[in-house]
């Protein structure tokens, strides 16, 4: 198993800078936000849609550094989503050579949620992209079982499946055993981090997007998580550390520590 560097781990970088960091620390792949987001104020302003200087620089650095794109964000489905509006993002992900795209679902109506997700997967498939749905306790797909059910509803195992984030698995009440029990064709991606055993419920979103822990500094079972994943499952290090950012720890040092910490925590499984 090889590890990709997730954009959240070094959220203070542009896409081209992210690629440069990944290449420098020996990460063969990245997971990338394709546009700035208000909920992630550390992300610099950049423009990847269209033939922009930033997109050209990102592609050049990917080619020079041997870095590929695993997953592109953000694709958020709500009750008001217009599937056609995602075409530009999907096209850009395809131009960047993405393996797949990540979906978060917030539509509260189950039938519409499933129909919208199926339509999105169909559109993504036209661009040659796989789709993973990320379960997240604050979304309308809060658990592993919910994500597997939604992925199964499309009926495209191996192309449409689940992104299993260790933090979300733990915070949603899931277990390593429940992950291991899922048929391997439905677990297509995974994300590593660490966190305290007990969560502050007043800061659930902040923990997920801004403040996780370095591998070994928390209570999560990274080695067990690695063992429960299907053989060869793609995975990334998603470890935002706002405390390290505020302390002035350089970008390369944060990225290198995150990568090496996960490798050490899981032993020879990566």
In short:
By secondary structure, this protein is α/β, with parallel strands linked by helices.
What do you see in this structure?
- This protein has a single domain, classed as TIM Barrel (Alpha-Beta Barrel).
- It has helices spanning 15-25, 53-65, 87-95, 110-126, 144-154, 166-171, 176-180, 204-209, 222-228, 242-246, 251-266; strands at 3-6, 29-33, 68-77, 100-105, 130-134, 160-165, 187-192, 234-237.
- The longest helix has 17 residues, at 110-126.
- With 270 residues, it is of the alpha/beta class.
Topology of helices and strands:
Elements: E1 3-6, H1 15-25, E2 29-33, H2 53-65, E3 68-77, H3 87-95, E4 100-105, H4 110-126, E5 130-134, H5 144-154, E6 160-165, H6 166-171, H7 176-180, E7 187-192, H8 204-209, H9 222-228, E8 234-237, H10 242-246, H11 251-266
Parallel strand pairs: 1-2, 1-8, 2-3, 3-4, 4-5, 5-6, 6-7, 7-8
Features:
270 residues; single chain; eight-stranded parallel beta barrel; alpha/beta; TIM Barrel; globular
CATH topology: TIM Barrel
- Total E-strand runs: 8
- Architecture, according to CATH? Alpha-Beta Barrel
Order of helices and strands: EHEHEHEHEHEHHEHHEHH
The percentage of residues in β strands lies in 15-25%
């Amino acid at each position: 198993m090889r590890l990709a560097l997730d954009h959240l781990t070094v959220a203070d970088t542009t896409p081209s800078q992210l690629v440069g960091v990944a290449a420098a620390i020996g990460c063969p792949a990245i997971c990338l936000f394709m546009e700035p987001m208000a909920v992630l104020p550390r992300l610099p302003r950049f423009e990847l849609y269209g033939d922009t200087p930033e997109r050209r620089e990102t592609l050049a650095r990917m080619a020079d550094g041997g870095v590929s794109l695993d997953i592109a964000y953000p694709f958020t489905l709500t009750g008001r989503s217009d599937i056609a509006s995602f075409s530009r993002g999907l096209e850009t992900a395809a131009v960047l050579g993405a393996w797949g795209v990540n979906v978060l679902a917030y539509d509260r109506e189950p039938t519409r949620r499933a129909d919208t997700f199926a339509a999105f997967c169909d559109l993504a498939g036209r661009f040659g992209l796989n789709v993973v749905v990320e379960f997240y306790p604050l979304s309308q797909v809060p658990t592993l079982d919910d994500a597997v059910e939604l992925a199964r509803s499309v009926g495209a195992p191996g192309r449409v499946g689940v992104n299993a984030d260790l933090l979300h698995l733990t915070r949603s009440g899931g277990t390593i055993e429940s992950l291991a029990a899922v048929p391997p064709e439905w677990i297509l991606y995974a994300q590593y981090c660490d966190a305290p055993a007990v969560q502050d419920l007043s800061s659930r979103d902040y923990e997920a997007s801004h403040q996780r822990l370095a591998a070994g500094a928390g209570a999560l079972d990274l080695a067990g998580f690695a063992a429960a994943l299907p053989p060869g499952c793609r995975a990334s290090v998603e470890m935002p550390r706002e405390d390290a950012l505020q302390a002035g720890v350089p970008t390369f040092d944060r990225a290198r520590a995150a990568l090496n910490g996960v490798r050490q925590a899981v032993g020879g499984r990566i």
